[in-house]
Amino acid sequence: MRILVWHVHGSWTTAFVQGGHDYLVPVVPGRGPDGTGRARTYPWPANVVEVTPAELAGADVDVVVLQRPRDLELATEWLGRAPGRDVPAVWVEHDAPRGDVPYTRHHLAGRDDIPLAHVTHFNELMWDSGRAPTTVVEHGVVDPGPLWTGELPRAGVVVNEPVRRGRLVGADLLPAFAAAAPLDVFGMRVAGVPAMLPGYDVRAYDDWPQQRMHAELARRRVYVHPFRWTSLGLALVEAMHLGMPVVALATTEAVEAVPPEAGARSTRLDALGAAVRRLVADRDAAETAGRVARAAALDRYGLGRFLADWETLLKEVAR
Q: Are 18 and 128 part of one and the same domain?
């Protein structure tokens, strides 16, 4: 199958392109949002090929994978065919709804020719998807392996653009977690965070290979997931695969993803802080919780299940 898919979310796309098909990834001059091309910090197979808008004109495409309203416009313009009408298409909804929740209408709510694949059951529940046929294909990640060592009695968190995204990703909660234990923040575009956390380690990993970020994170004793409102952060799933114990806000899909024995989940900041202190202080307890986290991640978010679910859906869409 020849699949047109934009490089929007690095970790999700890295898993998706492991499916053995031919993946056409748009690239534009300057590698802007309309076409960032192949990933440069994630390992992608050779069957992921960059294509320019000119090369897509008349190209043989079996399925278009849409992830943003802009993708729908670009596919129509570049292919000369309308997704859903002239060429099979599926929309992957990565985000929890914003705005007037739970009344937020999805971009596809008024049409029934493009199936809507939510990445979590929470998303499917909370979006008003209208007439669009919906399904859920839960996340999967390429297993980085049980890399956790916990050698550093510190907490780690991965959050991209925390200053811009603010309360959405729990950036305002970072000082509270830093009061519970030494906190290391990893992320892309983390400018401004050092002012929020003076004296703490803030690392921008924009240009790091994914393996380096995983190895560095795995040295920390516990993973903190401060996100208030995301469908399910893939960094959380990756940390669980690493074998890290997890302390997470009990919001959105995290309550389904994180077993209580994998660390702690709560809406009480004092309880979360106490869990961080306990796990940082007790390496044996952290190791035990991390084993539970890894087992749960492999069972629910393993790459094999993810690819099998997508293979089924793609075949249905392409018929």
A: yes
